[in-house]
Amino acid sequence: MHDLPCLETGSTSGVAGARIIDLVVGLGVALGARLMARIVLGVAQSLDLVRDGWVQRLDQGFALNFIGGLASALVGATIAVSVCGASLGKAVLGLRVVDMQGERAGVRANLIRELAYNVDALFFGLIGKSAMDGSPLRQRHGDRWADTVVVRSTGVSSGSPARLLFGIGLGLAAHGAGLAAFFIVSAW
Known about the structure:
The protein has helices spanning 12-46, 54-60, 62-84, 88-92, 107-120, 126-133, 141-146, 161-187; strands at 95-99, 148-152. The chain is mainly alpha-helical. It has one domain. Strands 1-2 form a two-stranded antiparallel ribbon. Helix 3 runs antiparallel to helix 8. The protein is elongated and about 60 Å long.
């Protein structure tokens, strides 16, 4: 077992709360991305660069848009947590993702844990909760596979507030831009 020096792990409810905040923010990002896609496609239509019927294609492109949403959320979360150790939800609740030495986890580890979230979220999150309840460090499967743990930010060097804002902003921008691109491609 790994011992993280002087670090308190995040609670199951805290981690779930952070995901709920991230989900609500993600919905806002999706709405903004959809609006951006509509503006770009409207301008493209006025320049005769897109064929008629793009509104219907945009509304009917659910499968591509769903895949795009998952992919862009994955990229955005991986970027944010790799740069500053937290998503917006984790930052608001005072949580950080660290490696087993208590340092900010790298891109590879964060990509693994974010990909594995799709497993941990099955059955309304019961898979992840069960894993956390059975782990002394409250790790879900994604954390175990990535050798990461979610901890309270007290005692964690999370960098400057500017780095935190930059990382979260960069992650949200990547999520929004990626999703807008998927929307545009599905309707073009």
